[in-house]
Amino acid sequence: MILKSKSLLPVREHASLFLSWMTMLMVFIAVLSLVGSMALTNLISSWNRSISGSLTIQIPTYTQQGEPRGDAVQQDIQKTITLLQQIPGVKNVSLLNDKQMSELMAPWLGVHEKISDLPLPALLDVSLDSTQSFLFSDLKSLLQEQVPAVQVDSHRVWLSHLIETAKAIQNMTSFILFLLILTTSFTVIYTSSSSLALQAPVIKLLHMMGARDSFIAFQYAFFNFLRALSGSLVGFILALPIIWIASTLFNPVQEPLFATAHLTHQQMYVVLCIPFIAALFAFITAFLTVLKTLGRMV
Amino acid sequence: MRNLLSSVPVVDFHRVHLKYENGPNVLKNIQFSLERGSFHFVTGDSGAGKTSLLSLMYLDQRPTAGRIHLFGRNLSEIKRKQLPNLRRRIGVVFQDFRLISSLNTFDNVALPLRIEGMKENEIKKRVTELLAWVGLEKCIHTFPDSLSGGEKQRIAIARAVINAPDLLLADEPTGNVDDAMANRILHLFLELNKMGTTLVIATHNHALIRQFKKPQLHLSNGVLECLPSPFKAPLEKSSTAPEFVGEYHDFEI
Ligand SMILES: Nc1ncnc2c1ncn2[C@@H]1O[C@H](COP(=O)(O)OP(=O)(O)OP(=O)(O)O)[C@@H](O)[C@H]1O
Ligand SMILES: [Mg+2]
């Protein structure tokens, strides 16, 4: 039944080329936004994992004017630890040593031999009992009152802002994907129905030979499928180098704070399916549009 | 099934009128019926309504009034879904060929078989055989736009007969070929006719009409007149044509 790649219906070259270009662009954008969105999802969940159950407290080692605070640092550390241990819900408090500090800073500063030479704050890692409710804002005001120099968990606050932003970006990419699907279907519907009008003589002839609507619609949609597939494969291939560049750019900031944004195997399969899904989508939309249009013909 | 219906006329027109949207009546009160296996020429001057008469039979036009039965079925009562099966029993050679320009000779001729869903290897066998018969084996991969009028006509004929239809409607099938080819084509039609195909051929070619001695459906001013096959002189015009109901092949020699 399939006429290989030959088209039964005389094809308007520019209309079908338009479909190819359109799907190329659509798949290109779709792949990029989907990969971006998946990476963000992974990032958000690893951030979430990293901030639940723990928090970090900074004790500055220098004043804001840049002078060493000396013994005041040790006093603040002791006082804070004592305070924290009295708060219900706090499981454990420990001071990060130089090795842990340099690991934490590695993504920004590289591997630094003498981390203690740097004007870095002392960090307290506080693990929380996740079964107990714990009011972060209460803790913050308590510490600010008792040990004013201390800064509570700026990266937690910062991360929660980041997560908000990431979620907003994610919503936006979903919206973009939705728009893409909408635009593509309008394009397919428009190009199919407008070129059908021009192909009325051939359709009439096929009808007179006893062709069913589904036969004609299939021929038409199959041709659309091939056009869309070639376009979307090109779009997919064009998106690959950009993904690669983006992933190498993000790589240095991944460990340990950012955990991982890498796609899982399942996610990669989903991305691989995009060009085929797009082509299939063009096929089904064209098939249904043609079927509906033919149904109105006598 | 066919045996049961063999007494039913293949084509039956009852007081059929046809009028194009804003024109005069092209066909007036047409009434005739064609038995299975009959062979008729449709004659008449240019513009007399030959193509219009055929187009009613291949369901391109609907009558303005009257009723048409094909294979015993009333066309006005038939559902859209049932049309394809009916149409597959009818082969049409259009006066203007109507080949599909994006398909080569092979694919054009194979079209009715593909519409039926026949297997590709069977299609290949049949189409190559028939194309050889009409002398087009060397044009098998050529596209219609680069073929001569006569070659296109033969493709149109091959496409119409490829699935051995029960009813073959040919509109000027020999208008663009030389006499030898015209004869060859008519013999192909005769072969089909012997196998049971009902034939209706619109033509201006008086030599063929004389040679093949078949009855005529003659149109003049949209009115059908029955003419028996030639040499049955004098040709008697049925002046009461509108009322005439007849089995014209009774006039056959
Ligand atoms: N689609 C149409 N719309 C309006 N008028 C038409 C249409 N087709 C044919 N006619 C008119 O109907 C009349 C009969 O046309 P038809 O094509 O049936 O003649 P014909 O006998 O086949 O002529 P020819 O021998 O030249 O092919 C003509 O006057 C023609 O102008
Ligand atoms: Mg004509």
Can you describe this structure in just a few lines?
With 298 residues, chain A is α+β, with helices and mostly antiparallel strands. Chain A is 68% helix and 7% strand.
Tell me which oligomeric state these chains represent. heterodimer
Unreliable segments of chain B (pLDDT under 50, ≥5 consecutive)?
Answer: 231-253
User: Which radius of gyration of chain B do the C-alpha atoms yield?
Assistant: 18 Å
* CATH superfamily placement of chain B: P-loop containing nucleotide triphosphate hydrolases
| Overall average pLDDT of chain A | 80
**CATH architecture designation of chain B:** 3-Layer(aba) Sandwich
Give the distinct bound molecules: adenosine-5'-triphosphate, magnesium ion
Using the alpha-carbon principal axes, give the shape of chain A: elongated
The number of helical segments of chain B is: 8
Class from helix and strand fractions of chain B: alpha/beta
Strand coverage percent of chain B: 15-25%
Spatial strand order of the main sheet of chain B: 6-7-8-3-9-10
The count of strands of chain B amounts to 10
Helix content percent band of chain B? 25-40%
**Chain pair with largest interface:** A-B, 21 and 25 residues
CATH topology of chain B: Rossmann fold
Taking the alpha carbons of the first and last residues of chain A, their distance comes to 23 Å
